[in-house]
Amino acid sequence: MNPVGRRDLAVLAVGLAVASWLLVRAFYGELPPLDWWLPAPLAVLAVGEALSARTVRTRLAAIRALRASRGTAARATTGSVRPLEPMLVARLAVLAQASAWVGAGFAGVWAGVLAYVGPAVGRLQEAGGDTGTAVIGIACALGLVAAALALESACRVPPEDRDPTEGVSA
User: In 3D, which of 115, 137, 97 has the Cα closest to residue 8?
Assistant: First the structure.
């Protein structure tokens, strides 16, 4: 599994920003109101992934420290360190990659909305509230991307002492 490319995320965000700006420009009067709480699920997912990243990183560091203290042949399955299931780490890595793509997509969509409603604040009545929602949406989406990249980084398997190759994703 390859890590998510930051450039690919940026290209997705810019492409969706342009597309959403064109769509909002054409259909702004027909859109339902953009309430401030619409990006809240992105924030909830970002917090969950940030906590998962911290937990995975802490537990893997404790397992590595226990293995180093016992020698490389010992397994860290006893003591105060709870082992992590390899499939759980793999699933979290896949979740992180998918969330990074979703966050970049939503960041682009909200940026496109902001690009239209931001300059229209003085001439459109609803643009003020929609501008605030778009700013919140961009912040939540970028928070999701950051948390997803942190979780993906925490799920990487480090290189082993006897194998000098680079680490690979779990």
Answer: 97
